[in-house]
Amino acid sequence: MSIRESGVFLDVITSKENPSIKLYTKLSGSKKERKNSRMYVLEGFRLIQDAIKENSAVRQIFFTESAYDKYYSELSQVDLKEVKVLIISNELGIRISCTEKPQGIFAVCDIPEPESLEKSLDAKGKYVVLHQLQDPGNLGMIIRTADAVGVDGVILSESCELYSPKVIRSTMGSVFRVKIFENCDIDNIFRCFDKHGIKSYAAVVDKNADDLRTCDFDGGCAVIIGNEGNGLPSDVSERCTKRITIKMTGHINSLNAAMATGIIMWEMSGK
Question: pLDDT band at 81, cuts 50/70/90?
Answer without folding.
Answer: confident
